[in-house]
Specification:
Layout: H1 8-18, H2 25-28, E1 29-36, H3 46-60, E2 61-74, E3 77-88, E4 94-106, E5 109-117, H4 119-125
């Protein structure tokens, strides 16, 4: 049986997100890390760039909890299947959505991350209408 609590990704979601500890970001992510699938607006990299995303997401959503349902780890790669629960700060509406994060680990820290989360369902849960460009 896998011990998901011993993985870097489990600790990432637990310490950074569930404990709302921004100071854990540079402890678990390298200063040069690349991340894909999330928007920082500035194109910044590394722990400093991720802090921008963390702050913006935490501004838009409160009571964030991320359940790590499973983690697979082999060599320098880990992948986690997660469910995010939060409240939309502006409306108070509860939302939940799932996603997968895959990371490459180097020297015990996240060196590169690929994120695939169902942000479309967030917009739909909030009643936001998306319009395609014409």
């Amino acid at each position: 049986m896998r011990n998901i609590q011993s993985t870097l990704l489990y600790n990432w979601f637990e310490d950074v997100w569930n404990k709302n500890d921004e100071n854990a970001i540079p402890k678990l992510m390298s200063d040069e890390a690349d991340f894909h699938g999330i928007d920082t607006d500035s194109g910044s990299k590394g722990a400093g760039g991720f802090k921008l995303f963390f702050r913006e997401f935490s501004r838009q959503f409160t009571n964030i909890r991320i359940d790590v349902e499973d983690v697979i780890s082999e060599d320098d790669m880990e992948s986690a299947r997660t469910v995010i629960y939060a409240n939309h700060a502006e409306t108070g509406k509860p939302i939940s959505f799932s996603g997968i994060c895959m990371v490459r680990v180097e020297d015990g820290k996240i060196a590169e991350a690929w994120n695939s989360y169902d942000f479309l369902s967030v917009h739909l849960q909030l009643g936001q209408r998306l319009v395609a460009d014409e």
